[in-house]
Write a structure and sequence with these properties.
Layout lengths: L5 E4 L3 H12 L4 E4 L7 H5 L8 E2 L3 H6 L9 H6 L2 H10 L4 E2 L5 E4 L4 H14 L3 E3 L4 E7 L2 E7 L3 E3 L3 E3 L14 H8 L8 E3 L3 E3 L11 E9 L8 E8 L3 E3 L1 H17 L2 E6 L6 H14 L5 H5 L5 H11 L12 H12 L1 E7 L8 E3 L20 E3 L13 H14 L4
Parallel strand pairs: 1-2, 1-10, 2-6, 10-19
Antiparallel strand pairs: 3-5, 4-5, 7-8, 8-9, 11-18, 12-15, 12-17, 13-14, 13-16, 14-15, 16-17
Length: 411
């Protein structure tokens, strides 16, 4: 009763897909999940709308993951976005890309996917035990033999660790897979919270909370790290910044905060316009309305409160004509529009993080099987390994692809 062809630790996307993949090949499969139900993290994805993947080509997709993205090559060739949509269609989940980029279930409801996965697991007679936290891996002579929970032992010479990272702790993420892996000799790289809001030293941001600023360009203002940049929509908050561009960029910022305590960044708030383009734009607007005050001119580029805040920083009078004011201050305002300085000095740790940066070292995993190079029969899938990507379906695609590859149980 306690012996299976495969034991999967964790019932998130990667764990469930690995179980389905193995069961479709005739294997008896047990999933052990410490939470009351499967797919809790998937339910929160994309605000519940479930952004599953995207339409980027293979090389562009991998490039978004940085240097560790190369590890994903084989898994993504086995199950890319097209193959994922076909897999979902096989379990009666229709998908589409309404913006031409991000792919969602047509219902825009994560429950559609979770229900379909549950139905497929039932059809395949996969045994799923919830409220079962795995405490130890059973192994001998560098070969896995099974797992131990608080009150039971389960046996298999194939175990997949798919227990996720530390992101979304309110959904039960505690990093169990890291300790399980470390106990059998695996290296865990430094873990950082990622995909989260960031706090700033500057307090003026609190005055600009009403609007989303589109297509903001953000870059690190430290000489060694000037190549780190991101682009997307930004929202100012009471204590800092958030929005898609911040969620993406936070995965680069949190490791830097460990090194420097403070990370200076520069924002282009004007959709990438340079100083000359802004000068031309403002002069043209002034010609149209020569009696307009400075605030009226700036509002053709930015929301009211943000325009006021930048004028304060440049010591510009919003109610006066821009071209009757001090030229030095006017130049300062132009620079602020293209390179607004902010200082990131804090974040809220894993309690606000959606994903984890870091994990089981990729050097100790075979990229063509997801099997451990240290322990025979031990496999990994999903966020537990040292791979993390930006917003937009990247991390879920990796969960599906790595789960599919691990579930093949290749030696």
């Amino acid at each position: 009763m306690n012996r299976f062809d495969l034991i999967v630790v964790g019932a998130g996307v990667s764990g469930v897909v690995s179980a389905i993949t193995s069961a479709r090949e005739g294997k008896s499969v047990l999933i052990l999940e410490k939470l009351p139900q499967i797919g809790r993290k998937l339910k929160a994805t994309g605000g519940g709308r479930c952004n599953l993947t995207n339409t980027l080509n293979h090389d562009e997709f991998i490039a978004r993951f940085g240097k560790n993205g190369r590890f994903m090559d084989y898994a993504l060739r086995l199950l890319d976005s097209k193959a994922l949509m076909e897999f979902l269609e096989s379990i009666e989940v229709a998908t589409h890309a309404p913006d031409g980029m991000r792919i969602f279930p047509t219902t825009h409801n994560s429950s559609t996917v979770i229900d379909a996965l549950n139905k497929e697991m039932s059809r395949l007679n996969i045994t799923t035990l919830c409220h079962q936290k795995v405490e130890e891996l059973i192994y001998k002579d560098s070969r896995v033999l099974g797992v131990e929970t608080l009150d039971s032992s389960f046996y298999s010479d194939r175990v997949i660790i798919a227990s996720g990272g530390l992101g979304y702790p309110h959904l039960g993420s505690e990093g169990d897979g890291y300790s399980l892996s470390q106990k059998v000799g695996h290296t865990i790289t430094t873990l950082y919270p990622a995909m989260m809001p960031l706090g700033t030293k500057e307090s003026w941001v609190s005055k600009c909370r009403a609007d989303t600023i589109p297509k903001v360009q953000m870059r690190v203002d430290i000489k060694k790290y000037k190549k780190l940049s991101a682009k997307g929509d930004l929202i100012f908050t009471k204590n800092g910044i958030r929005g898609p561009v911040v969620l993406d960029f936070s995965r680069e910022i949190t490791p830097l905060l460990d090194k420097f305590d403070e990370v200076p960044i520069l924002l282009n708030l004007t959709r990438g316009m340079n100083e000359e383009q802004i000068r031309t734009h403002l002069k043209n607007e002034h010609k149209k309305n020569p009696h307009s005050d400075t605030l009226a001119l700036l509002k053709t580029l930015l929301p009211t409160e943000l325009s006021k805040a930048l004028c304060d920083l440049a010591e510009i009078d919003t109610e006066s004509n821009l071209y009757t004011q001090n030229g030095i201050n006017r130049d300062k305002l132009i620079r602020l529009l293209t390179s607004t300085p902010l200082t990131i000095n804090r974040h809220d740790g894993f309690k606000m993080a959606m994903i984890t940066r870091g994990g089981v070292s990729l050097k100790e995993i075979d990229p063509k099987s997801m099997q451990s190079k240290l322990i025979k029969g031990l496999y990994f899938a999903g966020e537990v390994v040292d791979i993390d990507g930006p917003c937009g379906g990247f991390n879920i695609q990796w969960a599906f692809s790595s789960g599919y590859l691990a579930g093949k149980l290749k030696d």
